[in-house]
Amino acid sequence: MTGGGKIFESTAIKGVEFRSRVIRSSIGGRYAFYDGAVNPAWAHFERRFAEHGVGAIISATITVNDRRWSPLEYPKISQDRFIKPIREGVRAVQALGCRYILQLGDPGYHTQAGLFSEREDEMSSSSGFDFFFGYRSARSAMSIAEVEQAVDDFAQAARRVREAGCDGLEITASKGYLIHQFLNPAINRRTDRYGGSVEKRFQFLREIATAVRKSVGPDFLFGVRLSARDFNYTPLDLRWPPVLPLRHWWFGNDLPETLGYARQLKALGVDYLHISNGYGFPNPKENPGDGYPVREIGMFMNSIRHLSRKAAIRAALINSIPMPILRMIVGIGWRYEQGANLGDAATFRREVGLPVIANGGFQQRSFIEDALASGSCDLVSMARPLLANVDLLDQFRAGRDLPERPCTFCNRCTARTTIGPLGCYEPKRFGSQDEMERQILQWSAPGEA
Ligand SMILES: Cc1cc2nc3c(=O)[nH]c(=O)nc-3n(C[C@H](O)[C@H](O)[C@H](O)COP(=O)(O)O)c2cc1C
């Protein structure tokens, strides 16, 4: 099997043509200067994907808020001065025939704002306590004025995306970020116009989608990344206090609610949906893998232990529980499934009638071909397999069904994203540690192949 197939058939959404139907999903990393401006390592990182035939790149979640940031050295688009370096990188990607879609987000209480723990780190839809998610010991409810400011932040950032010359814009209403914190009934316990019913939980996203569409105009490609189902019970978290009905606390939004959100988004002028699953990042429904890397999660917990009492307790626990027990606890709910969210993507495509990008656990050419040919989705987005094999599409073109050294979905890259350079950290894929290190450095070294 060589050459053609659905993967390499071009397609268009809202007049934006994609040369192939596999696109790069968001990959966030420490590739900005300390003020949040993207740096040459970012431009180099993005360009490498464009060189190997993906139809588009969806950027990392880039924060719209100047103070809510997750974490230091991740990129921002919260001021006009951030536009210029983004524009330069985007042009280089486009010159290679690849589209660039910039993803906007606000981390809410998943903020690790900067040098010290700050009040901004705990801002969310409601007050409450999550043991594993968030950095501060508790989260706090935003005032109405703060919510309205957040809506305006999205609108301003959307204008900047267009000014930066991007081909499209996506907002993340998943990942456990601020919009998701309003949608999720276990987190949103408000009783004002932003909470108390499924309609009111959607109000924040409704205002953002309306403001963003107005800001970029009717002709600009605009998508939303949505979690089909929240699965609040996984990964393991202690979330307090519980809410009634317990289904809201244990599970969160299910398909009837999220299909309702999607239909309303379509009516508000959204052009496509990017479908993943679960609440929070990482989570087993979004980043499927057999277990979660314990050593790496320990590194992460230790690197943030100074941020709150809860962070210190988490680190102490992870440092003292014996490895085999820890592996069992941390691994609860993790399981690899190929194209894990494809079934839900197909449901959204069929029920809502918008183009859909499917995400999560794709890697095999024949499986992707079937997903596209069966009409389950319009595009497939990938992150970890492309980090493992940036030339994956070249390998498909040359006739391979799976790459020679496939991604094992070990999630070491996911766990390391906030603490080190991006790259593949799976020792099994390399002949030596030197070889692995060279590969990691290639990702962040402008001038390297
Ligand atoms: C290192 C790394 C960083 C990521 N950063 C982001 C991000 O900034 N925003 C986002 O929405 N998803 C992010 N993701 C999730 C991916 O976009 C993708 O949804 C997930 O990895 C599942 O797809 P895959 O199985 O193809 O890896 C990241 C994933 C990885 C591995």
Task: Explain how this protein is built.
By secondary structure, this protein is of the alpha/beta class. The protein has two domains: 6-291 and 337-444, Alpha-Beta Barrel (TIM Barrel); 293-330, no CATH class. It is 37% helix and 13% strand. The protein contains 17 helices and 14 strands. It has helices at residues 40-50, 83-95, 144-163, 178-183, 198-201, 203-216, 246-250, 255-267, 294-303, 309-320, 323-330, 342-352, 365-373, 384-388, 392-397, 412-416, 433-444, and strands spanning 11-13, 16-18, 22-24, 56-63, 99-105, 123-124, 129-130, 140-141, 168-172, 221-227, 239-240, 272-276, 356-359, 379-382. The strands form four sheets. An eight-stranded parallel beta sheet has the order 3-14-13-12-10-9-5-4. It has a two-stranded antiparallel sheet with strand order 1-2. A two-stranded parallel sheet has the order 6-8. Strand 4 (56-63), helix 2 and strand 5 (99-105) form a beta-alpha-beta unit. Helix 9 packs antiparallel against helix 10 (309-320). It is globular, with a radius of gyration of 20 Å. It binds flavin mononucleotide.
Terminal residue distance: 28 Å
How does the helix and strand content classify structurally? alpha/beta
- What is the average of the pLDDT values? 95
Give the overall shape: globular
Q: Tell me about the biggest sheet? A: 8 strands, parallel
Q: What is the CATH architecture term of the largest domain? A: Alpha-Beta Barrel
Overall structural domain count: 2
For this structure, what is the CATH homologous superfamily of the largest domain? Aldolase class I
Give the tally of β-strands: 14
Bound molecule kinds, no repeats: flavin mononucleotide
Number of helices: 17
Name the helicity range.
Answer: 25-40%
**Rg over alpha carbons:** 20 Å
Low-pLDDT parts are none
At the fold tier of CATH, the topology name of the largest domain is: TIM Barrel
Strand order of the largest sheet: 3-14-13-12-10-9-5-4
In the CATH scheme, the class of the largest domain would be Alpha Beta
Report strand %. 5-15%
